[in-house]
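Lab notes, practical 5.
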Amino acid sequence: MEEEQEQPISPDQYLKGRGAQFNPRNRFLKNERVREHIEAIDDWTEHNIATVYLEDQAKGIVNKVESPDVGMFYSMNPYQGCEHGCIYCYARNAHEYWGYSAGLDFERKIIVKKNAPQLLRKFLMNKNWQCVPISLSGNTDCYQPAEKKYKITRQLLEVCNEFNQPVGMITKNAGILRDKDLLQEMARKRLVSVLVSITSFNEDLRRAMEPRTTTAKQRLRVIKELSDTGVRAGVMLGPMIPGLNEHEMQRIMEAASQNGAKFSAYTFIRLNGAIKLIFHDWLYKNFPDRADKVWHLIENGHGGQVNDSRYGVRMRGEGPISDLVRQQFIKYNKLYKLNAERWELDCSQFRRPGEQGKLFADF
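Output from the prediction step:
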């Protein structure tokens, strides 16, 4: 894909439409060209280039999730990297494994697993597969802009529907409504549930923090339309960032409930790996008046540091700041009757094409 024909951007300018503003060093690469000390470079410019889709023939699509605190056993991600550009996204670090940066590369170089539907079919046909729900978008958003062109997520859902393989989904893109017909069919068999991520009703904050995502109003519409068609939908409040959006928790949960949300989840901000550098740069450029306060509040929510890799703690934080967020979440869950019902995806209907006929042929 060709670069946009725009003027080079100097170091003191802001790349609009992007979350990260630079490419931090990739810890896995010994030799690379990075901009770490702007003041030491006399003539450095950064082009605001267009997003590039890198088509890949993947070796696998379903991954076992070892972490006990993310609520999933297996996940599949048709895209690596995400054009949404959310500044806090934990998936940024994974882009380094592909030889790219967690910064601008993560938003501008999207790896497309074109053979994902075929890989999923092969995986589900394996007789060793004991059906449990698979999370679609455990890492990057499966309805990011690339989906409009490639339609891989739709194809994955079609395979799951054919096998009666249950799927849990999470997205912040209204593009999911394109597949409302298929999701409704799966919902009738209790094969799908959808979490819609909403982090703020403040549009100025949303545009800065999640530059290429749809508005919170549109995300509420997604919850309502899915719920109205019988798809079990919920709201993900993640991440909650003290000093930026944690005060909106009640408003978000109330609005989601009014639009048909039946369940909810949340995470507390954590800044592991390169995300620490990217978020710090973004925070001080966008909110210089409160950046110090927000940074220290995040530190206070993780025992004095902004990063945390401990299972069972990392997604919720620890200390008075994170405890306050957790208490709010519990309170408003009860108030708005979210997570009030016991509900599970149905794994009992799973079948491989042709197995039923083979069963009768054996008699």
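Observations recorded by the TA: The longest helix spans residues 320-335. Residues 1-11, 36-45, 357-363 have pLDDT under 50 and may be disordered.
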